[in-house]
Amino acid sequence: MIPTSILRVWFFGLLSFILIGAGIYCGHEWYRRSWSYDFARQRSYFNPHLGFNYPTFFLAVAVVLLLWMSIGGLIVRALFGLLTKAKGSAGGKTPFRHSSEEGIVSRLGRPDGSDLHVECYGPEGAPVIVLTHGWGADRTEWNYLKRDLAGRFRLIVWDLPGLGRSTQPTNHDYRLENLASDLQAVLALAGDQPAILLGHSIGGMITLTFCGLFPQELGTRVGGIALIQTTYTNPVRTTTFAGLLTALESPLIIPLLHLTIWLAPLVWLMNQLSYLNGSSHLSSKGSGFAGSETWEQVEHVTRLGVKAWPAVLARGMFGMLRYDATATLKTMMVPTLVMAGDHDPVCKPEASRRMRYDIACSDLAMLKPAKHMGLIEHHQHFARHVSQFALTCLSHEPHRLREVKPTPD
What we know:
By secondary structure, the chain is an alpha/beta fold. It has a single domain (104-394), classed as Rossmann fold (3-Layer(aba) Sandwich), CATH 3.40.50.1820. 49% of the residues lie in helices and 14% in strands. It has 14 helices and 10 strands. The protein has helices at 5-33, 54-90, 143-149, 176-187, 202-213, 242-262, 264-277, 279-288, 295-307, 310-321, 326-329, 349-358, 374-377, 379-394, and strands at 35-38, 43-46, 104-109, 115-121, 128-132, 154-158, 195-200, 222-228, 336-341, 362-367. The protein has an 8-stranded mixed sheet, sandwiched between helices. A two-stranded antiparallel ribbon has the order 1-2. It is elongated. The two termini are 24 Å apart.
């Protein structure tokens, strides 16, 4: 999620309330119109006339709307399952399940009062990769990568503050500088050997902020950087319809973020209603997947989005609005993998091309066709890219530099 996602949260949430209200209104109209008056007995009586008439029309609309609001999500998930079952079987797709390997769990207390949940997978002494998930998700975003790489790498996954099993900071400060300091604390669990820092979406923003704050770590404790479907500046500037959304940032997006914090319980209820009626599934599929996903992948990503506390999401989005790592790009002198989705509407591939252009020792990999959750939809290709990059960085082999820099789009 990036700050513009708050528009979808409120749109689908308010739509859910409107549909419930319309259903209640139609039910009331049916009930009101179903009463008749017996002049002989001088009393009214309830006498619904089911058929091709206005009362029956109101009843039908009320039933459809209220059923949609209560079980629409089940219908959408069933349709996703039917549409993707054959496609998943033919394409070798595997379910989005937890790795069977048990991880070593650590809790890191932080000066801001947060308590970070960290898990380590894979053999000790293996090359280390520290994984930072996207906003609104948690460590389970890496389920596929844990299954595919944990036998050959030491994977350190963690929940960002306020998400998953990590607690919120008591000062509610979600500036990316603070999250980068949290990443430094997690990196310490790698010990003396250098590690790869890999971040998706806000995870990549946190990683770039880390590079700017702690340049002395690059080349010593950090052997390489992987920036997955992320951006180098305020993500409102590098998303679809960036011009319009930038113009709406101050008059609409920022007020909605404040409103989300103040009315967090109400927004949480809106999110649950959106999940029940299936609109959140459609939203997740539209922004995250390009057509080769399984229904389990859509369901998992959707559940993560509605599970997170809205005030936490809004505060993290405020942090992204103040983010800019443009100056950091040209100072990074460690091998860097930049990965983009060719149809990503959240962090457009042009942002990845700009990062590849500015970072001296970098390569660009493109997931095709892919939107913002391409790392899940194309998890096998993603794991292969990460594995090859990590082995190259941590085996002390020289990393291939680009001979000619392309002109950024």
